[in-house]
Amino acid sequence: MNRLYLLILPFLLMLSSCGPKPLVPWEEGAFETREYRNLFVEAGYAPEDVEAKLQEVFEEVFFGPDKVYFEVEDSLAYVSDIKNNDVRTEGMSYGMMVAVQMDRKDIFDKLFRWCKKYMQHQDGPLEGYFAWSCGIDGKRNAQGPASDGELYYVTALLFASNLWGDDTGIDYKAEAQHILDCAFAKDGSDGVYNFINTEHKLITFTPERFGYMFTDPSYHIPAFYEVWARWADDGRADFWMECAEKSREFLHAAVNDTTGLNPDMCGYDGKVFSFGGRRNGSANFRYDSWRVPMNIALDYEWSCADKEWQREYGEKIQRFFYSQGIDTFVDQYRVDGTLPEGMEILPAGRSERALRHSVGLVSTLAAASVMCSHEISREFIGALWNSENVPHPDGYFDAYYDGLLRLFAFMHMSGNYRIIFPE
Q1: Beta-strand (E) ranges in 89-232?
Q2: DSSP 8-state symbol, 258
Q3: In this predicted structure, what is the pLDDT of residue 273?
Q4: Which residue pairs from 112-120 have beta carbons closer than 8 angstroms and sit at least 24 positions apart in sequence?
Q5: How many other C-beta atoms can be found within 10 angstroms of the C-beta atom of residue 10?
Q6: Alpha carbon distances (Å) from 74 to 67, 71, 281, 356
Q7: 54 belongs to a structural domain
Q8: 196-197 vs 202-203, strand pairing mode
Q9: Bridge partners, 69 (sequence order)
Q10: Are residues 336 and 259 in contact, defined by beta-carbon separation less than 8 angstroms?
């Protein structure tokens, strides 16, 4: 027996060395290392296949048959939420972030020029802010801003400044500074405030009367404030670093200790906020909430300032959804992990109220793998790799939100969602 074991031992060692290597979260963020993991390659996919897949997903979202990007008037373009037939600051600022990450100045400039022409207030109490929803013809559906739009605009503009400079047609840094300076000029007069609640140093749901009183956990991306502290040059670097710290503390409070789920929106203390019946089910994990795993992963990748908690969070939320079935989990839950019912279920656009296995959530949960070392992360990575953004059995299809989150996830997982340092 012992002799046989000695004979086959070399073969056993060879087989074990050929097995998949464990996924090991990094100890430092890209602000320090300027390096990024390619989790697809670590999971066994060929580098050339990963690059081809990323380009395929980008082309699908921006130029394919179900694209959400449209060029108009020679020098303008917009990203449309097709299911709602409108243009949102969410999608426009996402499009700008994708464009600067992919080094597509042509797309970035066309999107920002559309924002300037149709969405940004040039005077009045809302000066500097962007109307959150417009028709595809540019006519505003609402005047007020949604704070996540400003968050992404500023960060994308600073990256554009770092990558392309400020003398190529748009002074990107000046545009970012203008948004920030206008925000700090607002003191509540006419019901308009800073999009950062300056008492709590946390981002608001909206910088207007009602929305100023609470926040949306999916708007919290602490590392973005570190970008502002480094490159906004607005004299508020210490304030922005404090905002990053406060945002991380907030996320601890907002996330359920058992499931890892977070509410759709809540108070600045992370607890459920009373909406007076205005938004039934707003304490549940639903569409906005999907973004939280990927946002926390981004903060881990770039800063790694809260790595112990973030690693626990990443594995906790993946374990919860794995327990629901890697191919069958649905896209809305109460934060205790039970299923919502009836009017609690938030419809998407004009669709029927329904619980679906949505590719947008598949995507953000896969992105959380950057924080995880448990083996089930490989299944989440595989689920993203094999995903398709196609109509659901009930006919519902979202090329916009699902499509953009899927693209962001492929950028993250391939190491192509990066801090853009000055050239």
Answers
A1: 133-134, 196-197, 202-203
A2: T
A3: 75
A4: 112/157, 112/170, 112/175, 113/75, 113/76, 113/170, 114/72, 114/76, 114/77, 114/78, 114/87, 114/138, 115/89, 115/153, 117/76, 118/87, 119/87, 119/89, 119/92
A5: 9
A6: 18, 7, 43, 39
A7: yes
A8: antiparallel
A9: 79
A10: yes
Q: Tell me whether residue 412 is in a domain.
A: yes
Q: Which domain does 395 fall in, by range?
A: 19-65+284-423
Active site positions, annotated: 90, 288
CA atoms of 250 and 229, how far apart (whole Å): 19
- Rounded CA separation 377/387 (Å): 15
Q: What is the pTM of this model?
A: 0.94
Q: Examine residue 294 and state whether it is found in any structural domain, yes or no.
A: yes
Residue 420 in any domain: the answer is yes
Element holding 161 (H helix, E strand): helix 147-164
Q: Cα separations (Å) of 373 from 34, 268, 306, 311, 313?
A: 22, 31, 16, 8, 12
Q: Tell me the C-alpha to C-alpha distance, in Å, between residue 241 and each of 44, 195, 237, 329.
A: 37, 16, 6, 37
Taking only the tens place, the pLDDT of each residue in 318-365 is 999 999 999 999 999 999 999 999 999 999 988 899 999 999 999 999
pLDDT tens digits, 38-75:
999 999 999 999 999 999 999 999 999 999 999 998 89
E strands in 147-222: 196-197, 202-203
Cα–Cα–Cα angle for 74, 163, 52, nearest 5°? 75
> How many domains, the chain?
1
Q: Can you read off the two tokens belonging to residue 365? A: 């949960």
pLDDT tens, residue by residue, 150-202: 999 999 999 999 999 999 999 999 999 999 999 999 999 999 999 999 999 99
Q: Look at residues 284, 296, 220, 221 and name the one whose alpha carbon lies nearest to residue 256.
A: 284
* Residue 302 Cα to chain centre, angstroms: 14
The radius of gyration of the chain from alpha carbons, rounded to an integer in Å, stands at 22
Q: Which residues have C-beta within 8 Å of that of residue 306, sequence separation ≥ 6?
A: 222, 248, 299, 300
Side chain identity at residue 382, one-letter code: G
